[in-house]
Design a protein that fits this description.
Ferritin-like_SF; 10 helices; mainly alpha; Ferritin; Ferritin-like; Secreted protein; signal; globular; 2 domains; 60% helix
Length: 284
């Protein structure tokens, strides 16, 4: 008995309109790389937000337009380019989001940030830092402060302990800098010290529920350059400390969850909120 051979129409070119360049294009469209659906959806949302916020809040609209550009660029980066530098036809996407009217810019950004957080595990780990950075930038525009540390799992223990040690270092650095700042800057340092001391207490309480709580060392070397030696270097040092703090917490929120574990979404959301808090301080 003869086996029936099925030849795909795209390859057989039985129809004249599929021959030549058109057939090649059709094959590329079918078999070529395709835009990440999650990134595409988020990019469309960002484009729609930017349009809706144009009159309501130009700064927020500009932020969301930037996010859209970043997401479309990330889509193209993942798809790759041909020898002539062009993105494959199969990866081309419509850059218009679905139009809508906005009445509250803060609500738009809050919803966008929540949407990003909910879809972080749907994108590749290499795209996650971009999405986390966007969520942080939007949450930083809010005045909301991080709440209590959520319940941690055993898989969160190492990161939580590392962050606790980081906060010990921040307290030491700020306390050291306070000895050199001018009187008009002392209040600023005290506010930041109180913030980091609160983080220390919150992390100590959370870590204690899952394991031993490390204690601070007697002294630390600086992770933000040389320790200050006078008022001028102390003021610059404060800016470096604030920047490195934002980077550290953003990096923590972007870390990949172990393969064996389900992601602790509440913990990651808390990390993003702390990074947003640091972002506000750094930008002030």
């Amino acid at each position: 008995m003869n086996r029936r051979v099925v030849v795909p129409a795209l390859l057989a070119c039985a129809a004249p309109w599929l021959c030549g360049c058109q057939a090649t294009d059709a094959i590329v469209d079918y078999f070529g790389p395709h835009a990440d659906p999650t990134l595409t959806s988020l990019a469309h949302d960002a484009s729609a937000d930017a349009h809706a916020l144009q009159e309501l809040d130009p700064d927020a609209a500009s932020l969301r337009a930037q996010h859209a550009d970043e997401l479309y660029s990330e889509i193209e980066r993942l798809c790759g380019r041909d020898e002539e530098g062009h993105v494959p036809r199969s990866c081309e996407v419509n850059r218009e989001g679905e139009a809508y009217e906005a009445t509250d810019a803060a609500a738009v950004l809050a919803a966008a940030s929540s949407s990003i957080e909910e879809q972080l595990d749907a994108v590749s780990p290499e795209s996650r830092p971009l999405l986390v950075a966007q969520a942080i930038a939007m949450e930083a525009r809010s005045t909301d402060e991080p709440g209590a540390v959520p319940e941690l799992t055993e898989d969160d223990a190492d990161l939580a302990t590392e962050l606790l040690d980081w906060e010990y270092r921040q307290v030491y650095a700020l306390d050291f800098a306070r000895s050199y700042v001018t009187p008009d800057v002392e209040e600023l340092v005290d506010e930041r010290l109180a913030l980091h001391e609160n983080r220390v207490l919150a992390l100590q309480e959370a870590v204690a529920k899952i394991g031993p709580v490390p204690q601070p060392a007697a002294a630390y070397t600086s992770t933000s350059g040389e320790l200050p030696v006078d008022a001028a270097s102390a003021r610059a040092f404060l800016d470096d400390v604030a920047h490195s703090d934002t980077v550290t917490w953003a990096s923590a929120a972007s870390q990949e969850v172990p393969d064996q574990a389900a992601p602790n979404a509440e913990w990651r959301s808390w990390l993003i909120s702390v990074a947003a808090q640091s972002h506000r301080i750094s930008a002030a």
